[in-house]
Amino acid sequence: MADNGRRRARDLALIVPAFGVIALMPPLIGLFARPDTGVFGIPLIVIYLFGLWLALILMALLVASRLRRATRPDDP
Question: What is each CA distance from 72 to 3, 6, 9, 47, 75, in whole angstroms?
Protein backbone atom coordinates (compact mmCIF):
# COMPACT_ATOMS: atom_id res chain seq x y z
CA MET A 1 0.00 0.00 0.00
CA ALA A 2 2.85 2.39 0.81
CA ASP A 3 4.41 1.59 -2.55
CA ASN A 4 1.23 2.79 -4.28
CA GLY A 5 1.40 6.15 -2.43
CA ARG A 6 5.07 6.51 -3.30
CA ARG A 7 4.34 5.82 -6.97
CA ARG A 8 1.52 8.36 -7.03
CA ALA A 9 3.74 11.00 -5.44
CA ARG A 10 6.47 10.37 -8.02
CA ASP A 11 3.96 10.55 -10.85
CA LEU A 12 2.63 13.83 -9.50
CA ALA A 13 6.21 15.13 -9.28
CA LEU A 14 6.53 14.50 -13.02
CA ILE A 15 3.16 15.99 -13.95
CA VAL A 16 3.59 19.38 -12.23
CA PRO A 17 6.62 20.54 -14.27
CA ALA A 18 5.03 19.21 -17.46
CA PHE A 19 1.92 21.24 -16.67
CA GLY A 20 4.11 24.33 -16.16
CA VAL A 21 5.86 23.84 -19.50
CA ILE A 22 2.57 23.40 -21.34
CA ALA A 23 1.05 26.44 -19.62
CA LEU A 24 4.01 28.57 -20.76
CA MET A 25 3.85 27.54 -24.42
CA PRO A 26 3.29 30.38 -26.90
CA PRO A 27 -0.23 29.34 -27.97
CA LEU A 28 -1.52 29.61 -24.40
CA ILE A 29 0.45 32.74 -23.57
CA GLY A 30 -0.86 34.32 -26.76
CA LEU A 31 -4.39 34.06 -25.43
CA PHE A 32 -3.49 36.40 -22.58
CA ALA A 33 -1.06 38.75 -24.39
CA ARG A 34 -3.56 41.37 -25.45
CA PRO A 35 -2.63 44.99 -24.81
CA ASP A 36 -6.23 46.19 -24.55
CA THR A 37 -7.28 43.69 -21.85
CA GLY A 38 -6.51 44.13 -18.19
CA VAL A 39 -7.79 43.90 -14.66
CA PHE A 40 -7.58 47.07 -12.55
CA GLY A 41 -5.07 48.49 -15.02
CA ILE A 42 -2.78 45.44 -14.88
CA PRO A 43 -2.28 43.67 -18.22
CA LEU A 44 -3.83 40.21 -18.35
CA ILE A 45 -0.53 38.57 -19.32
CA VAL A 46 1.06 39.77 -16.06
CA ILE A 47 -1.80 38.36 -14.00
CA TYR A 48 -1.58 35.06 -15.91
CA LEU A 49 2.18 34.69 -15.47
CA PHE A 50 2.24 35.57 -11.77
CA GLY A 51 -0.86 33.45 -11.12
CA LEU A 52 0.73 30.50 -12.90
CA TRP A 53 3.95 31.05 -10.98
CA LEU A 54 2.06 31.03 -7.68
CA ALA A 55 0.08 27.93 -8.67
CA LEU A 56 3.26 26.05 -9.63
CA ILE A 57 4.91 26.96 -6.32
CA LEU A 58 1.89 25.76 -4.35
CA MET A 59 1.69 22.54 -6.36
CA ALA A 60 5.42 21.94 -5.80
CA LEU A 61 4.89 22.42 -2.06
CA LEU A 62 2.06 19.88 -2.12
CA VAL A 63 4.15 17.39 -4.10
CA ALA A 64 7.12 17.83 -1.75
CA SER A 65 5.00 17.14 1.31
CA ARG A 66 3.46 14.07 -0.34
CA LEU A 67 6.89 12.76 -1.33
CA ARG A 68 8.16 13.33 2.19
CA ARG A 69 5.22 11.39 3.68
CA ALA A 70 5.51 8.61 1.07
CA THR A 71 9.23 8.03 1.63
CA ARG A 72 9.11 8.26 5.43
CA PRO A 73 9.52 4.86 7.06
CA ASP A 74 6.50 3.64 8.95
CA ASP A 75 6.57 4.41 12.64
CA PRO A 76 5.83 1.42 14.87
Answer: 11, 10, 12, 37, 9
